[in-house]
Write a structure and sequence with these properties.
Layout: E1 8-12, H1 17-27, E2 31-36, E3 51-53, E4 59-63, H2 64-67, E5 73-77, H3 83-94, E6 98-101, H4 115-121, E7 126-131, H5 146-152, H6 177-200, E8 204-209, H7 210-216, H8 219-228, E9 245-250, E10 253-258, H9 262-271, H10 276-279, H11 286-291, H12 293-304, H13 309-319, E11 323-325, H14 329-334, H15 336-340, E12 344-348, E13 354-358, H16 382-388, H17 394-402
Parallel strand pairs: 1-2, 1-6, 2-5, 6-7, 7-8
Antiparallel strand pairs: 3-4, 9-10, 10-11, 12-13
Helix pairs in contact: 1-6, 6-7
Organism: Cupriavidus lacunae
GO molecular function, one term: CoA-transferase activity
Protein name: CoA transferase
Length: 406
Amino acid sequence: MGALDHIRVLDLTRVLAGPWCAQTLADFGADVIKIERPGAGDDTRQWGPPYFTTADGVATREAAYYLAANRNKRSVTVDIGTPEGQRIVRELAAQSDVVLENYKVGQLQKYGLDYASLKAINPALIYCSITGFGQDGPYAARAGYDFIVQGLGGFMSITGEHDSYAGGGPQKAGVAIADLMTGMYATTAVLAALAHRDRTGEGQYIDMALLDVQVAMLANVGANFLTSGTAPKRWGNAHANIVPYQSFEASDGWIIVAVGNDGQFRKFVEIGERAELADDERFATNPARVQNRDTLVPILADMVRTRGKHRWIALLEAAGVPCGPINDLAEVFDNEQVVARGMKVEVDHPLGGAVRLVRNPIRMSATPPEATSAPPLLGQHTEHVLKTLLGYDDGAIGRLRENSVL
C-alpha cells in the first residue's frame, strides 16, 4: 500500500523537471498517467546513447535519460492539438487529483487545458505548472533551459575554479540541478496542496519556475550576500574560510580532505611526514593558513601525491581527519555503503530483461517508495486507460487511431 495510491496524476510534462516530480509521486504509489505525443513521445526517449539493451542483447530506442525519470508511470499517447485529443485529456482530468504541465505560458489555454478550464470540470483539482521563469514577470514568455538558469540565477558565479587559478571560470553543475530541484520543490508543493485539500476540499494552482528555485537554493550563499552586500567568489573545490578544505590529487586518483581545526591539520601533515608544517607560524592556525594558502596548498599537493587515494583515506580515517574519495560512477555503485543501502534496483522491462535504475533515496517504515514498474513504452497503456477509465470501446479507439489522435 503506497502513501499516495489513492491519488491519480495526469502528467503532461516532458524532459526532466516535471517528469522528476511525477516519478517521485509515482514512487509513493500515485497512479501517474503520462500523456505523450503519438509517434514521438517525451523528447528524452531519443536523448541517447546509451539506450536500454534487452536480455538477449538487442539495443532498443529507450534512452537512459528517459529511463531515469519515468518509472512507475502509464504512457498514453494523445495528440492534444486535435479536438478529440483535448476531449480525452479533459475526461482524464475530471478523474484526476493532480495535473502537471510544463508548456509555455498560455499555450494550453488555446486547447482548453489550462487551469481555469479544467477547474470548471474538477474544482478539487491541483494544477501545477512548471516553466523556466513563472507565469508573470518580463521573462515569462521565455523558454527555460537548466543551463541558462544556472547562469542567470547566480549558481555558476559561485561554481568553478577561482579566477586566479588555471582553468578558472564559471562552471555548471554536472547534472541539471535547476530542473531536478524544481521537480522536488514541485513535489513538495503538490503534497502540501493535497494536505490542504484533505481539510478543505479545495484544489489550487501551483506556479513553479526554474529561476525561482535556482535563486532559492543558493541557501546560505544567497543569505551571505543579502547580509553583507558582497557578491561571493568562486573557490572551486576549496573553501573561502577554511584551509585545507579541498580536493587533492593522490598518486592514483583524487581525495577530499576537510580539515576543520588545527588538531586535525597537525594529524594530516604528520601522516604525510611533514609534521614541521604544523609548527610553522604561517600554517599553525586556520587564520594563518587562510592568509598563506597560496604557499601552503602547493606543499600539501606535493605531499598527497606521494601515496594512493585508498592508503590516504585509510590513514586519515584512522586518525579522525575528515576525508573521502572522489569516485567515478563505477566506484559509486560498487561502494559498500551504496550497495548496503540498495541504491541500485532492477525492474523487469516489457521488452525483455531487467532495466537497472537508481532507487528513490527516501526510507519510510510504513509506506516506503518503491520501483514497481519500468518506464513505460510509448503508448503502452493507451487502450487500457481509455477502456477502464473512460469507457471507450474497441471501435471508438480504432477510429481515434485512424484519425491519428492516439
